[in-house]
Write a structure and sequence with these properties.
The protein is an alpha/beta fold. It has two domains: 2-74, no CATH class; 80-239, 2-Layer Sandwich (Zincin-like), CATH 3.30.2010.10. It contains seven helices and 13 strands. The protein has helices spanning 2-6, 54-63, 65-74, 121-148, 184-196, 205-214, 221-236; strands at 12-15, 18-27, 34-38, 43-49, 79-80, 86-89, 92-99, 106-107, 112-116, 154-158, 165-167, 172-176, 238-239. Strands 1-2-4-3 form a four-stranded mixed β-sheet. The chain has a four-stranded mixed β-sheet with strand order 6-7-9-8, covered by helices on one side. Helix 4 crosses helix 5 (184-196), helix 5 (184-196) packs across helix 6 and helix 5 crosses helix 7. It is globular and about 60 Å long.
């Protein structure tokens, strides 16, 4: 029975008293074992080269138990957004208010995000935030890529977990919609970072010089990175559809 288990990929693992589902993907392009954890959905994704066997996968999980436990301990619990919740929007905190008289979603000067009551207000709020992020990030990308003189070929906004943005070798820009929670200057840095990759597909000194040149003179890049490190996990912990733990 033990021998059979060793030859089967693990499908679950106990991390700090929580059961996590494990998904193993063997990929032709993979050169080494890598692992990602989604603490909100209790999932671990492992990418492995084609030749790696199940016993090696299990040993890899065992070696990384301490790291997994640290991720579970340091990432905030999920927050299901509902009426009365406080969420960030463009760097400011707003209280979610559902108003039967409201016709559209509107942030006001009292620090409220007012939602119409029809349909599913919180899901409507999520769609609103995604649309706001798409419009804001695209406008910044268009302005900065024009400044650089190198256009991007595609633009996408998704709910990425491990990267705030990316730039493909085919000049495709991708961003996490949850950046709309950040202050404008933080989003400006993230977009400048990815647009700079249109010219430098690395993190060389030339890249960082280009990134800095695209940012306003008074924008503190290290401070922007600090905001993402400090607040990013909390932004990812916001759940808009009541699906925490699924």
């Amino acid at each position: 029975m033990v021998a059979q288990t060793l030859f089967r990929d693990p499908d679950q693992i106990d991390v700090a008293g929580q059961i996590f589902d494990v998904a193993v993907n063997r990929l032709k392009r993979a050169r080494r074992l890598t692992m990602r954890i989604d603490t909100h959905k209790c999932r671990i994704k492992i990418s492995a080269p084609l030749h790696v066997d199940s016993s090696t996968i299990r040993a890899f999980l065992h070696r990384n138990q301490a790291w997994l436990q640290q991720q579970v301990a340091t990432r905030p619990s999920t927050q299901v957004v509902q009426e009365g919740s406080t969420i960030p929007f463009r760097g400011q905190d707003y209280r979610v208010v559902i108003d039967p008289k409201a016709r559209e979603i509107c942030p006001n000067e009292r620090g409220e995000l007012v939602l119409p009551s029809r349909g599913e207000p919180v899901l409507r709020l999520q769609r609103y935030l995604i649309a706001q992020a798409g419009d804001d990030l695209r406008a910044r990308a268009e302005r900065l890529s024009a400044q650089l003189g190198l256009p991007f070929r595609s633009f996408r906004v998704r709910d990425t977990k491990t990267r705030w943005g990316s730039c493909s070798s085919r000049a495709g820009l991708n961003f996490c919609w949850r950046l709309i929670f950040a202050a404008d200057w933080v989003r400006e840095y993230v977009v400048a970072h990815e647009v700079a990759h249109l010219k430098h597909m690395d993190h060389s000194p030339a890249f960082w010089a280009q990134c800095a040149a695209l940012c306003p003179d008074d924008l503190d890049i290290e401070a922007a990175k600090g905001v993402l490190r400090r607040d990013g996990n909390g932004w990812h912990a916001l759940i808009f559809d009541g699906s925490a733990g699924r």
